[in-house]
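Kindly inspect the following:
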Amino acid sequence: MRKAKMVAAAAGVVLLVAGCGSEGGSGKNKGGGSSASSSGSTTGGAEAGGGESPTAAAVEKEIESAATAAGFVRDSSGEDIPAGLKECMVSWTPDAQKAADPKKSYETTVTTLTGGGWTQGQKTEQAGSTVQTLNKGGWSLKASNHGAAGLAMVMFIGTDNSSKCEALFKADLEKNKKQ
């Protein structure tokens, strides 16, 4: 349960730094284009990033392949996604300390993902952190690199923006508010 709360908190930090996928984020919008958001009305389906919407397992496999090819090793503590959200959310966190150059590995991972059909959305850079939104099918992926002041933390958090998953995210939020 503690890991689930850590993943949720990390996702919240990523979304906060990224401006929740909106064009009005607090950083510099360098990616152009728009990104799918999990708030408000979403189209789900293929409109967000082109092509068929992949499954959570396919998204995780794409991240894993790109990140390990770039020199990352998955953090052995792993991420614990709540059971009801496993088809709607993917979290892949490398042990950035084990990478020879975490920033270069992050950039290579993002480049590999965009070469594999993910489209770039908003990019926010602020105080040594970079958060790049990537979209594919009905999925949005926040690829984040935090490397200021000796800190090396990289995260890849994907969410399915379908109305079904949006309802599940809202229900999970309400459930956690009561705890």
Remarks:
- The chain has a mean pLDDT of 77.
